[in-house]
Amino acid sequence: MNRRKFLAATAVMPSAIAQTSQPITHVDTKTTGARLKSSVVKAKGLPAEGDSPGAKAMVSFNGPTLQLEGIASGACTLEPGARPHPPHRHPEEELMIIASGTGEIVVDGVTSQVQAGDMMYAEANVLHGITNTGKTVMTFYFTKIMAKPV
C-alpha cells in the first residue's frame, strides 16, 4: 500500500476526500538505500516537496542509520489556512517544533493552539495533524523516527 492510500485509509476525514487523490505534502521515511552519514545540510537551495496547496516541505535528511531503520527530518512552511494533509497516522514516531507563526495541532483527539517554540510528539500510529490558523506563514521542523525491529 502506498503512502497516499495509507493516509486515506487511516485518517479521520470525509469519505469523499478518502476516495479522491487529494493533494498532500508528506515525507515518506526511507528505510532502504545508503546509510546516512554525519554531515551538515544547508537549507538554502533545498527543493520544496509536496503538492498540497500552501504547504511545502524541505527535507534535510532521509534514510536508514546505523541505529535506526529510518529517519526523516526537515522543515515545512504553511501559508495561512494551509495544512500539509488531513490528520493521519504512520508507523514512525514524530516530533514537530514550531519555528514561526501560529496554528493548531491535533494529537490523539486533543487540539492545541501552538506558536513559535512549541513542540509536538506523536507516538507511532497516533492520529495527528497540523494547520496554520494564523495570518502569516507558519514554519515548523519535523523529525520522523522508525526504530529497527527487535
UniProtKB/TrEMBL annotation:
Residues 76-141 form the Cupin type-2 domain. Keywords: Metal-binding. InterPro entries: Cupin_2 (IPR013096), GPI/OXD (IPR051610), RmlC-like_jellyroll (IPR014710), RmlC_Cupin_sf (IPR011051). GO terms for molecular function: metal ion binding. This is Cupin domain-containing protein.
